[in-house]
Write a structure and sequence with these properties.
It is a single chain. The chain is of the alpha/beta class. It has helices at residues 50-60, 96-110, 163-176, 211-219, 230-239, 268-282, and strands at 43-47, 63-64, 72-79, 82-90, 114-123, 133-136, 138-141, 145-148, 151-154, 157-160, 180-183, 190-195, 198-200, 225-227, 248-257. Strands 1, 2, 3, 4, 5, 6, 7, 10, 11, 12, 13, 14 and 15 form a 13-stranded mixed β-sheet that branches. Helix 1 (50-60) packs across helix 6 and helix 2 packs across helix 5. The longest helix has 15 residues, at 96-110. It starts with 42 loop residues before the first strand and ends in a 9-residue tail after the last helix.
Length: 291
Amino acid sequence: MMTGNSGVINYGGSMKIRQSAVGDGATVTVREKNRTSARRADVGVITILGKEAGAVHEVLGLRQVSDSSLPFFEGTVAAQGTNHRIVAIRALEQGQRSTVVAFEQLRRHYNPAIVVLAGIGGGIHRDVKVRDVVVTTRVIYYDLRKETPHGRRRRGEELKAPAATGHAVNSFFTAHGEPAKFPSLDGSGHFQVLPGPIGSGDAVIADAESEIIRYLKAYNDKILAVDMEAGGLTQAFHEQDGPQIVRGWVVVRGISDDSSAGKNDDHQDLAARHAALTLRHLLPYLPAAST
């Protein structure tokens, strides 16, 4: 028998002791290993191209996080008397899959109230002009399909953001007009911001009469634009689980081309900057993270 012990006794075998102290009055101070996990943001932003990321960083005044292994950019934007905590990440690659991963990275490290996909897209509707912006809470994923001896049969799937997010976007257009108009960043008049659904899939479309565009117009003649990432965002939101739940999503697409054979990169920079400026105007209407 042993009495008066203030240490550790082992009568045989192996034992590991970590983050522990032995003796009278001993204490342990454990340092947090991952500071990033403690951060919070009101709005998380996903971009794809470098020019999209650069536009968001410039317009929102974001700075790179120095102590993270992931390329996060942070900042606080004051709008209508409220400070909005913003975090942005550029997806590794174009397409739906990298967008899913970027969504999870934002959710895991910052748990934002809402995630915005911001950047450029192709217009497919007569009401949308190059350099305009489309803001949407409705995405039609068009790449679900069946290949048959008689041809391809597409099975479009529409996903909508939660009603609270839809109301937030509606409030933006109530305040600014529908369509909203803002001064163009190149000094050439104004650009329009329009609400309406977009199509999303894995194709780069450079044919205004393509089978995909014909399908989308038949599916819903109010579809305004197309991109290659919004379907991934909506699916990631739909399948999220665990304690850190994003409450909504929005897609903001500056129109850089008309999805025709004349498609080029000439207007990408300005379209990306117009999308970032629209996001800044949209911030006061988006929900904030709980503290």
